[in-house]
Amino acid sequence: MYKKIEREDINYFINVVGNVNVSSDPEKLDIYSHDEVSGDKYKYLPELVVFSKNKEQISQIMKYCSENKIPITPRSAGTGLSGGAVPVMGGIVLSTEKMNKIVEFDEETLTITVEPGVIPDDIQKVVSEKGLLYAGDPCSSDASFIGGNVAENAGGNKVIKYGATGNSVMALEAVLPDGSIEWFGGKLVKDVTGYDLVSLIVGSEGTLCIVTKIILKLIPLSKYIVDLLVPFKTIEKAIEFVPKMIIESRIIPTSIEFMDNSSLVLTEKFLNSTLPYSQAGAHLIIELEGNDKETLADEYEKIGKYCIQNGALEVFVADNKTTRNRIWKARKSIAEAISSLYKDFCMEDVVVPINKIPELMSEVKIISQKNDLDCINFGHAGDGNIHVTFLNHSRSRKEWENIIDITLRELYEKTFSLGGTLSGEHGIGLKRRPYLPIVMSKEKIKIMKGIKKVFDPEGILNPGKIF
Ligand SMILES: Cc1cc2nc3c(=O)[nH]c(=O)nc-3n(C[C@H](O)[C@H](O)[C@H](O)COP(=O)(O)OP(=O)(O)OC[C@H]3O[C@@H](n4cnc5c(N)ncnc54)[C@H](O)[C@@H]3O)c2cc1C
To answer: Cβ(388) to ligand 1 under 6 A?
Structure first.
């Protein structure tokens, strides 16, 4: 149904972006054949990799591909955890990595306009010098690109207070599959002119359009930040405390992150450094911020006492950059530690209402024991979003894939029965596509397919994803 790329197509792309920006070198094709999902099952070679430098080039490529039925898979940094940037149907992978400029930093409207290939940490550096914050903070903030963050509506460590990426997106410039270029939204604090198309595009996983510019909202950067590192004897104690703390303390921290003992041990091994109470069953990282030192101290003392009353073994206060960075380095490195220490693993990101986290964790234990799987757990506990991760020690690839399929079905069914869903931030992509009907009715999937058809009638943009 899709056209295979031929010499004349290659010549066309070379004509648009230049010889150096088109590659069919097997090594390059291999690099662009996968993202960070583990397993050959999620690897597909593109026929061609094309690097775009501006929206006009993308427009010409999209128009040509629509007319000739050539699949295009948009790609940012390839750190995705759902197989979203993988060219399942072949065709071209269109990389936006060369579109990496900060276009405008507008302090008067508290916005920054960026191209999709900018790394979130680089946005942070620029705005923090002026006392501002871009609130997006995925653990991949030093490696992923903002275009990928927008396409996945990436979550991360500050969602509990500031929301996911979409909460900071005010406007988008995008190229549609027919080659037209449109702006959605603007530098407006509010806008109810018709449907909210900005929110529709955010999280659409590169299936509706290719984002070429993003206007992000900035907020004042807090003067003081404190992290509490809180070890608990057991996972259960730590997890039970999370909803209790939020509900009863009436304080919304910036982050409440969770690492069970196995994930801490892995990340310590990977980084070759340790955190206090390494042997504890689980650790929480609770981040608080404010502009008044004394008020902040009152808050963290209150929460610290509350932690101890609820079974914490100790409360370590990190109020300087060095210790704070040490704690966050351990937390942010867990995913990398897993992928460097295990060939086969399955990292999930199920999400439940915060009061259901303890039940979710007991179900995870039952499911992994029943299927004889090693499982480690960490994640954004404050949002009810846990990275349940299964590790393959000794099963053959086939056995592993079979047992993971059974296990995921059980996990998603349980999560759904608790009022949750199968992805809080990593998206459906290729990996979770077979499981979408577990959590979504046929009618809703039909609506989504209808939306896709309006944007992309020829079905050339990131085919084979979501549904
Ligand atoms: C170590 C590690 C830690 C992580 N931590 C987090 C975390 O805390 N929170 C979280 O949410 N995720 C996390 N992730 C997952 C991943 O980093 C995010 O999903 C991120 O948003 C992907 O960005 P990317 O630039 O790598 O996108 P890619 O993987 O390249 O692409 C992701 C999707 O976006 C589409 N896309 C890319 N660019 C565009 C564009 N310009 N226009 C339209 N569509 C586009 C692609 O087609 C694909 O479907 C982590 C991953 C790793 C490896």
So the answer is: no
Residue 391 burial (CB count, 10 A):
21
Q: What's the rounded Cα separation, in Å, for the pair 12 and 417? A: 51
Structure tokens at 15: 């004509």
Chain segment 313-350, per-residue pLDDT in tens: 999 999 999 999 999 999 999 999 999 999 899 999 99
CA of 80 to the centre of ligand 1 (A): 4
Rounded to 10 degrees, what is the CA torsion of 105, 107, 108, 113?
30
Q: Is the CB of 231 under 6 A from ligand 1?
A: no
Provide the residue type at 287 as one letter: E
3-state secondary structure 13-50: HHHHHCHHHEECCHHHHHHCCCCCCCCHHHCCCCCEEE
Best of 37, 75, 122 to mutate for ligand 1, by most ligand atoms within 8 A of CB?
75
- Give yes or no for a contact between 17 and 52, defined as CB atoms under 8 angstroms apart: yes
As a whole-number percent, the residues of the chain with pLDDT over 90 amount to: 96
116 CB less than 6 Å from ligand 1? yes
**Cα-flanking dihedrals φ and ψ of residue 227, to 5°?**
-115, 135
Count of the separate structural domains present in the chain:
4
Give pTM, 2 decimals.
0.97
28 φ, ψ (degrees, to nearest 5): -65, -45
- Closest to 176 measured CA to CA, from 214, 200, 208: 208
* Domain limit, last residue, from 335, 363, 390: 335
Going by pLDDT thresholds of 50, 70 and 90, the confidence category of residue 248 is: confident
Cβ-count burial 132-141 (b if 16+ within 10 Å, e if not): bbbbbbbbbb
What is the distance between the alpha carbons of residues 29 and 50, in angstroms, rounded to a whole number?
A: 10
Same structural domain, 186 and 252: no
Residue 244: its H or E element: helix 235-249
Among 275, 310, 335, the domain boundary falls at 335
Question: Tens of pLDDT along 439-457?
Answer: 999 999 999 999 999 999 9
The arithmetic mean of pLDDT across residues 168-194, rounded, is 97
CA distance 215 to 218: 10
Q: 456 CB under 6 A from ligand 1?
A: no
Does 106 share its domain with 212? yes
CA distance linking residue 51 with residue 100, whole number of Å: 12
Instruction: Give the DSSP letter of residue 33.
Output: T
Structure tokens that stand for 406 in this block? 């059974």
User: Residue 95: beta bridge partners?
Assistant: 51, 75
Condensed to tens digits (0 to 9), the pLDDT of residues 79-130 reads 999 999 999 999 999 999 999 999 999 999 999 999 999 999 999 999 999 9
Which amino acid, residue 163?
G
Which of 226, 382, 230, 225 has its CA nearest to residue 304? 230
Q: Which domain holds residue 169?
A: 102-220
Within a 10 A sphere around the Cβ of 339, how many other Cβ atoms?
A: 16
